[in-house]
């Protein structure tokens, strides 16, 4: 049954040098608008849910372009606010083979989203309109104002019986020096409120500071995540392990922890066209599967296939329908579809 | 010795989303004009023959663009007629890795070609100008008018001692429900008139409805095709077996049945840039080899190399010269040619 | 006060050769989706109304792209149906100076919209959701099925007290031989149901067959339109007179007939970047002004300015906000806005 | 009645910076292939004649591209030879307003065309295949080898009763110091052989060295050209006077001298999109009109309209059909053609 | 004699929507790097001077691209510092006809340039390397740190006998509420240090707060600027009056006040391709003429022609050489230069 | 310690068909400027040295564009001369998979560089400004004038104690029939003057004509190069062995001979985006390592990593910084860098 799922998060403008030129070689950029929340609710809208975004965009031509773009991504923009003058942007230079992709950010802290005042969002009213709400560790890294909104919204949703989803997504460059120490209390607070959590053993080790004697990441995973699940009363924890063979070829294995049980997808190895946002495709697959009540194995295989497909489309945002993901789960590579 | 080879078939406009965007992501298309007949006679013209197309194009800007494009492809357009208002078109979204390419057709049944009246073509006059004539199963699927022209032309060519070439090319979506049953009598009639036929075991099994107890496609092939050859008095039957590893990597092995003898090319594995039309490159190689009197092994290796190269150029239509195909047959991959 | 305004009409794919190349010179196309209804409700959405489209789009990649595009244009797509396989498209070659622009259509009669079955739309339910509904003479030219839906919807809206808007927009090439005679009864039927009508003296003369002894089009206008208004009990009639100096420079004067009174805008002379759809911008301005209760002079000046601005943006669909139109009404050309 | 018209001349590759960038600003070029002969016979082919080109192109990828391009322009390439390695090219930076367009040539003297050996062309055989042959003063400036071929071909055509057409087209930069003195005997020799000549008063004054006491160019024209006509027994002389208001707006008046009588077109003033090659459009109009037996006024108006339209299309080569030129002669600027 | 001329100012990234699309319509941007200082010293480098830029760029891919771009513009980058992470950027949507161009800025206050510490520049060392230094009112609007650097550098240059150039360039949106009052003391301080000043009557009236009873801007100019010149002991004051007919056509008249004498250029009317930065072209012409000792009339005509040409090239930065400007001063519009 | 390193060599314009189209399919080209010398000194400038180019460029728009491009590549152009009208250019069609890339040259012998007069370069003055000078076998193939300059410059640098670098780079197509015999004395003369030499066993065998009984290229290398080193008193010899798996995948192993000792890099296998110029990246790595005093193994691994990275960027010219090469030496492929 379709759900009303919202995400709270910043919209960024992505400015990508076409092909494989560097910024210092090219003279054109391809632009689009994205963000973890954008990617997740757009993917969920393609799976048949209503996907809403809770954010603020500037009141100018950039904000107009962003809002139009969100609508094109099938996102319901009725909760999008228009205030202020700025939005964050990032430049992307595509890697090739042995040369990694490179992202350069502009100053996002002055964005409409990151400077929203205390009373910007009516937590109760928003919670009343949605069944589930998605948050991400990137927003948590911004500032106290954003963190207040995250916690306020999460509490309101929880209280009304909605589902709180949290993607840990720890980005070292955003937290700065002693980042894990700064981040720790906020992550804990979010986990207390969360039902579905995207994380892996790194988050447990570093952000939550739980110790292990294991060395292989698979062993660490199986030791640490059940502890987190129990400690924070989380119903679903999921994530991926990724191996990078070259800028153009990756492998990925998804895992799901539910009811005390780990379930894994096959290790998928695939050609990569656009790596950014593929993690959000995985998260969307998990959320869709969990909300629709899929069996554990179907959830994790669906999410892994969704992530794999997201590497084959341009842009941060997944574009596959449910039926396309289902086919990618089972079928081998196919010929032209006519 | 160069031959005068014609093809009877529809010209389609191909509208391709550049790069790997979907139609719902992009805003530009790259266009060209193609069709099985176009591809085959253009390739044969590059091998030194005179390549003519027998078709109808609309009398408007689209028809002008199509005819200019055919000329650029080295095709003699003196048998191209200009009447009516419409032509078929198809949209192509390139696949990548685990995501297949996707083709979306517009309604082609109202095209100038598919609505040509009974007396549109002077079969005798056309037959007098050519040494060989190529037909394709796609046209056979259109309507009775087109089928009448195919049979009329084939008979006229046969009667004058010319060579009739038929590529079975059964497309399920074109024949609709109970397609094999509808198609069967028309395929039989065409095979009665044909000297060189492109087909594989699938066509024998389903379109012609011949039974087999074999399971491997190679065994089915070797059992069924000699029966077809004998039944319809065909001098050459050829085709390929293709395996698809990803949208970007395929394998292909060509076969040739002549004088009761099967000859195979090596299994070629190669990178794929543009898969559409590669089967026509294979057919052109077979036709060229057969008309030029190559030995069986040279024919099938030439055709397979031509098909492989056709996957490396953009557009439906093969671009390689005879010397380029010959080099691709023998040489390993080479450095930049200066 | 914002209204809920819908349009009933076909969505076409526009395929434009970039710059000033002909189709036979270029190899790329820029695509977008438009239609009279699209243009009108998108413009009205930018003026603050809710703009809905009542149409059918194919259930494939083209339909996906079209629906996403409509959403990007700020159109509410909740009344858009997805059935069938085809949609109409047109190719546009831009004119320059003494060379006129050229449009080439594909066969639209097989489109999802034009083949909608009798029970495709629930007239009553739709009428219940909207305050006003816009129709266009282009749709009226299609076939009996479409005409039935137009009249059915118009009646339902009228019955519920909504506003029926009709843009005469007679296109000779769509009606064929004896077009005016064929069109006449359908135009009359639509005018009986309409409150706001876009037309000029040509429509009265030829489509409605009213005679005049006047020769100047201005005099014909002032003689004929009041007769039409009275005969069909129409509350607002509006339109434009256009003069074309070159592909790149036009003049336009808007008129409005209301309460027995003609009001005219100044004759505006302006540079033309993209002429298509500018008439829809004028219509949107009239509708907005009429529904918002502007004074007659403000209505006609607003609509003329909206039309002028629509010539300066790419694509068929107007992009200006209400404040941009208001500024264009009063201000002389301005410097860069920073 | 359609004629077989050939042109003898070099094919150049045109490399144009898109838009209005300078070479030092941009990083892409749009390429095409042209030349006076190319432009003239392509235009004549669009008017229904058979247009052939007599030239030499290199035996490599550049030559392949050029020959394909000529075919796309509707040119019969059966007289095109393929030898050597080089072809001339030129870079074009578009001017805008007060900034003139700029052309930069590469060294063309080593081109396949300009290094054709003495026995490259079989003058008699070529003359037997054509009704008229066009030459241009640009080729005359190249070297003795090219001049020999021009004179040999002209004599052969003349002897068989064909029509020799010569466009004076004196380019100072090609003849170098004392250019008029060097050019004079060659121009005289060509004029002796010519039936239709494109020239104006400048050619008479400087290249032929005829004196005048008149000062206005119109008066010089009327004094000098009849002397030239008589002296060289030329049946038609035609040309234009051009005024340049800005890079984007020119005026042009055509004249025709035939049977001792001057006929003039109106002075046409028009927007300019691509000025290069417009003179060849005028020449093609004159040739078409003269060969088809139009009345003098129709010839000169047709040629002037063809020249005007040629300023509105991209590329050096005219694209208009006869009916499009006829419409441009009479009609005022028109709205979009649907 | 070539001079060593520097400018102190911020480098901005310009992100322009190609053609005439809005940000909400397009998906690509063309980027370049500019700024008043960039434009001025690049133009002066094309006139034969050494043009240096004093600025700070981020230490990342954006900074690399900017510095490479400055070098391509012929700017000496030996005084460019690389620190920090951000740079200002602006989006440009081209206007057309009655629709004005629109600029949207991102938050520039956090840029490397605007956050340079107190000791970032060694004023004395810099002053020792240059003959003249250019400042602009845009930088003056940034913050106290930037203002300190401007004044420190100006004093150091003045003290060593160098020439201080100041372009008033008051931008209301940068100074905010009560902007004139805030700006006044800083403008006065800069004028005290300046030798060559770009300003007009608006600056005198509003920024400096001098009263007038005159109403026509020409009269205000002639009354107010001599007072400013005397009060601040400025040797040259220059500026322009611009009229905007449409986004594509402007008029401009330059003036120069020197030795108590006003000199004016003709009123130039011209087609506009890219308006931004044309004021800097005018300033560069004035600076070049003043430093080279041109007569007053030649200075102002040179500067006006340079400004006119700058409207015809893409990008903010002038591209004309001295000889191109000189030709534009005298010649009427010319034909293609071959 | 940064060195002043120059290269003597021709600048070529590269005109590349975008994507994988052939010249006869496309209509746009991407252009840049390169050459062995350009690539080497640009790479060395990115490693922190001062990179100068000694060359001649035409005095026109092409030369302007080339010089601006060199500056953008971080090259010091103070030794670049501007004379003459022509420069060499080459067209590049990208290969794909089994289809090799193809280069087509224009006639370069008339270029400004190749027609420089005897007194064009002041050898002594140039030698005084630089620490090392790079030459290439391509220039040696041009004509006696160029060879005279090479030897004159090499002698002057050698005499002042500078380092002479010579890249053998024998191109059969440039030397023509009996090329090795023609080339032999010139190669010997250059080797006499050289300190660092890029070559492999092929050069020793064919250009220098030294015999071997070995068959494997590795054995030939180890037998022949020490003989060359001793005979010509060269301090460093280096080069690569390359294997080509497809147009898109190559392997490469670098070697270094110094102090009688061979050192090898690992065999690197990598995806290829743009193969041209990768040999120059290897040479730059060797030069940088040798001049900076790296250990032999670090030199050869640095050079091999630099070559590998050069295959991943567009254009002939390497773009990697020293730190990027160092990371590519050690790290496995990495994820997006944020």
From TrEMBL, chains A, B, C, D, E, F:
Keywords: Kinase, Transferase. GO terms for molecular function: kinase activity. Signal peptide: none annotated. Residues 3-318 form the Carbohydrate kinase PfkB domain. Belongs to the carbohydrate kinase PfkB family. This is Sugar kinase. It comes from Paenibacillus motobuensis.
């Amino acid at each position: 049954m379709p759900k009303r799922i919202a995400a709270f998060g910043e919209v960024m403008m992505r400015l990508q040098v076409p092909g494989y030129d560097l910024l210092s070689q090219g003279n054109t950029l391809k632009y689009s608008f994205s963000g973890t929340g954008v990617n997740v609710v757009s993917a969920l809208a393609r799976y048949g849910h209503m996907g809403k975004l809770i954010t603020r965009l500037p009141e100018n031509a950039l904000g107009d372009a962003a809002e139009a773009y969100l609508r094109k991504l099938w996102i319901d923009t009725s909760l999008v606010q228009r205030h202020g003058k700025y939005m964050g942007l990032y430049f992307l230079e595509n890697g090739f083979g042995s040369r990694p992709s490179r992202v350069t950010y502009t100053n996002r802290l002055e964005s409409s989203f990151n400077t929203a005042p205390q009373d910007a969002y009516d937590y109760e009213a928003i919670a009343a309109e949605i069944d589930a709400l998605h948050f991400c560790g990137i927003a948590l890294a911004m500032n106290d104002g954003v963190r207040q909104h995250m916690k306020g919204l999460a509490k309101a949703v929880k209280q009304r019986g909605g589902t709180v989803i949290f993607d840990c997504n720890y980005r070292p460059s955003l937290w700065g020096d002693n980042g894990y120490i700064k981040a720790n209390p906020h992550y804990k607070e979010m986990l207390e409120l969360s039902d579905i959590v995207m994380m892996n053993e790194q988050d447990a080790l570093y952000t939550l500071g739980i110790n292990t004697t294991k060395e292989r990441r698979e062993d660490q995973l199986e030791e640490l995540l059940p502890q987190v699940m129990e400690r924070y009363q989380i119903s679903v924890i999921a994530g991926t392990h990724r191996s990078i063979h070259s800028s153009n070829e990756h492998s990925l294995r998804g895992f799901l922890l539910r009811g005390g049980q780990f379930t894994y997808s096959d290790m998928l190895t695939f050609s990569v066209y656009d790596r950014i946002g593929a993690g959000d495709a995985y998260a969307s697959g998990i959320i869709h599967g969990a909300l629709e009540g899929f069996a554990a194995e179907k959830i994790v295989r669906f999410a892994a296939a969704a992530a794999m497909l997201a590497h084959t489309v341009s842009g941060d945002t997944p574009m596959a329908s449910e039926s396309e993901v289902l086919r990618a789960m089972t079928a081998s590579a196919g010929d032209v579809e006519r």
